[in-house]
Amino acid sequence: MKVLFTSFAHRTHFQGLVPLAWALTLAGHQVRVASQPDLVDDIVSAGLVAVPVGVDHRLFEIDPAEATEVHRYSTGLDFARRHDELHSWDFLLGLETANARSVFPRVNNPEFVAGLVDHARRWQPDLVLWEPFTFAGAVAARASGAAHARVAWGTDLTGYFRSHFLALRADQEENRRRPDPLADWLRDVASEHGVEATPDLALGQWTVEQIPARFRLPSGLDITPGTTSAPYNGPSRTPSWLDDGRRRIAVTGGFSGLGDGADLPELLARLADLDHEVVVTRSGLAPDQVQSNVRLVDFVPMNALMESCDVVVHHGGAGTWASALHQAVPQVAVAHEWDCLLRGQQVADAGAGLSLDPQQTDAATLADAVRSVLDQPTYRAQARALREELRAEPTPTAVAQEIERRTVAART
């Protein structure tokens, strides 16, 4: 069958789709990936067929006032401390409004939607698989008669919050009279292309979840487990120093991943006496600013680096998180953005690492956390247990077969 993947031009979001795209390619299907022009080189580098459509998004040129509002609803989403607030009507309506007004229209600009619809009508895919912010994929699928599903490359907060918003809206008559900002925006976008506005434009006909079962949120959505194979880190070469036998600590994301009060040079100084090489990515530091056991790199493939790591310090990003899970590496997460905080907390709850609050984390706190994880073997044992859970998830072949079955069912 013909399968059209689509993601707006964001490298990290696209990379989360690559293993599934290859699983379907190897199952014998014709696979294309459509995106805005800025992502084309990344698609081609992944060995996939790229379809450039529309013009690049301008998400990061958002007005400061709008950015503040989006930030309000996308950071500090602590389910333990803020559970009732995060499930309240006021929060959910505010989140839906901020996204529908400021984020999603910029990501799915009119030129991108029109180009994707045009390509889908000409190529006639059987299935469109779309990244959760890329609602243009749902519109293109409906315009061309294809089945379609969302592919959650990380924790599916978008679907989770949307499903709870809809449940609260249906439950109370007063809420039913209130606006549904996402549905209103999608109705306008769909009408421009002669597509009827239906609920599946927001949530797909089903959702492919690509994280282990224990970490999936109870959204009530129709879920198909996706491939949880090792994440795709992008085209890369393995440096020779990775095979020198040394044990390592990885610190990723530079200063932004450490916390509000953490100083990277101070952290590295506090780790100088450890019998580990500390590999730091994107630090902005010069070699003469760090200790002899520190290696500064602009980029290193996470899957390869994790093989020699005893702990990784990161900001909760899906790629590093998944790479660590696959190599059974304990994690210290200092996170506050969107789903990053939840990922760190879930690993900590599983006993495979620690999750630190950026607002209460300084270099001393972070160094103590690293030492604690290194000194207590239970963290490594629990990380290995999580890896075994990963290995019990459906294989890429099984995932491809289930998607085939669901596509046929959706089109009959």
Short description:
This protein is α/β, with parallel strands linked by helices.
Question: What does this entry look like structurally?
Answer:
This protein is α/β, with parallel strands linked by helices. The chain has two domains: 2-63 and 105-228 and 393-410, Rossmann fold (3-Layer(aba) Sandwich); 240-391, Rossmann fold (3-Layer(aba) Sandwich). The chain has 19 helices and 13 strands. It has helices at residues 11-15, 18-26, 40-45, 64-74, 83-86, 89-107, 110-123, 136-144, 157-171, 173-176, 181-191, 200-203, 264-270, 302-306, 318-326, 340-349, 363-375, 377-391, 396-410, and strands at residues 2-6, 30-35, 49-52, 127-130, 147-152, 207-209, 223-225, 248-251, 277-281, 294-297, 309-314, 331-334, 353-356. The strands form two sheets. The protein has a seven-stranded parallel sheet, sandwiched between helices. Strands 10-9-8-11-12-13 form a six-stranded parallel sheet, sandwiched between helices. The radius of gyration is 22 Å and the shape is globular. It starts with a strand and ends with a helix. The model has no long low-confidence stretch (mean pLDDT 93).
Write the SSE topology.
Elements: E1 2-6, H1 11-15, H2 18-26, E2 30-35, H3 40-45, E3 49-52, H4 64-74, H5 83-86, H6 89-107, H7 110-123, E4 127-130, H8 136-144, E5 147-152, H9 157-171, H10 173-176, H11 181-191, H12 200-203, E6 207-209, E7 223-225, E8 248-251, H13 264-270, E9 277-281, E10 294-297, H14 302-306, E11 309-314, H15 318-326, E12 331-334, H16 340-349, E13 353-356, H17 363-375, H18 377-391, H19 396-410
Parallel strand pairs: 1-2, 1-4, 2-3, 4-5, 5-6, 6-7, 8-9, 8-11, 9-10, 11-12, 12-13
